[in-house]
Amino acid sequence: MASPPMTATPRRRKLREPSAARVFAVDCKLSYTLLGDTHFLFMVHALNGMDQEVLEESLRITPTLEHEVHVDEALGHRILRLKAPTGPLTLRYRAKVRLSRPTPDTSAQEVPIEALPYPVLADLMPTRYCESDRLASAAWKMFGDLPPGYSRVKAVSEWIREHVDYRTGSTDSTTTACDVFLQRAGVCRDFAHLGVAMCRALNIPARLAVGYSRFDTPPPDFHAVFEAFLGGQWELFDPTGMTDPGDMVRIAVGRDAGDVAFATLFGSVETRLIRPEVEQVRSRPARSTT
To answer: Which segments constitute the Transglutaminase-like domain (predicted)?
Structure first.
């Protein structure tokens, strides 16, 4: 007689109080010179979901072009698709976004593999930029004896910040987590890739998150951090230490940078300007009526 299929007992999520809601203003400007007809896939729209809400937004493309916006059914991120002719192209996206992000749950525990939701299992696997299989031996030697949970992921993030130099121009679009681990230099996406790969090597689901963050140096750019699945929820970590990840306005999340590039193009292009800016909107004090 066949045994009934085994099912994991779902764990009850710990409910967390969101931090005070904050509103951020996004102003993203991109400018290119196209040397021929070019197809673009842009990811610049703020994600409308998870722990953030788009209150208002606008998009201006110069010259005016036909375009479409595809919404990912699973995660809600948006992809802008267009074809542009030879000549200048500028894009300006503006939005106001309310964040109602829970404070980090520093007591969150790692979820046993047998209890992980099926959609999360893909975030355990090695990918092009996050070769967790090749980093497994190092990850377990460095972090395997630490108490499992939030504190172990925090230790991974802090190790990256302390041992990898933030160096603009030190990497390119082909650089992987293994490359960064060996050369000990990179930019935000490289730091995040290494964090993702180390977590996956420790059997902790992890993914890349990209969006708008404010930091003074280097100049404004899209920012990448990583998320780890702990206690049944996704927790944000920024191994660069340059921002508070709780203040990032998400654009998208994915397995690695191949899923969440802000611009994918098919053609010959010269980049003139990339300026994604974000500022918190401060509420004005109420006027006295006396």
So the answer is: 180-241
